[in-house]
Design a protein that fits this description.
Helices cover 76% and strands 0% of the residues. By secondary structure, it is mainly α. The protein is globular and about 50 Å long.
């Protein structure tokens, strides 16, 4: 139950847009906060983690943009980027917790995709007569 409340809290933070910059500008910051909260970082860890993670995210986005056409090359370069940043994250959160950063990044991206898919489904259903289509089955 506690995890559900935490999830709803973070989802609410991501979705609220009153008097804030456009969502695309806030996503990296929200991901950073999501990871810090999920990892229960101390004040010192958060302070040191923020700038390093911002650099990592910037390089991650650039890598994804450059390799849109070649997914295999993108995966390879992302793994190399994670190995590179493991050396910078380790002194901050410890060697054993570094992989958790990358796992939580994937979790956050999945949450964003799910929210986006839900919004698309809601838009499609709002202009038609009858109920919206059922959500896709997940096995």
């Amino acid at each position: 139950m506690k995890h559900l409340i935490t999830f709803i809290y973070f989802l609410t933070i991501v979705l609220v847009a009153d008097a804030q910059p456009p969502m695309g500008e806030r996503i990296p910051e929200k991901m950073n906060l999501f990871i810090q909260k999920k990892m229960r970082m101390t004040g010192g860890e958060r302070e040191a983690f923020g700038p390093v993670f911002a650099r990592y995210q910037k390089e991650w986005r650039e890598t994804m943009r450059k390799n849109r056409e070649d997914r295999l090359l993108a995966r390879q370069q992302l793994i190399e980027l994670q190995i590179k940043y493991r050396k910078e994250f380790s002194p901050i959160v410890g060697e054993k917790r570094v992989i958790q950063i990358y796992d939580l990044q994937e979790d956050f991206i999945k949450i964003l995709r799910d929210v986006q898919e839900e919004r698309v489904r809601d838009r499609r259903g709002s202009g038609k007569m009858g109920p919206p289509p059922p959500p896709p089955r997940r096995f």
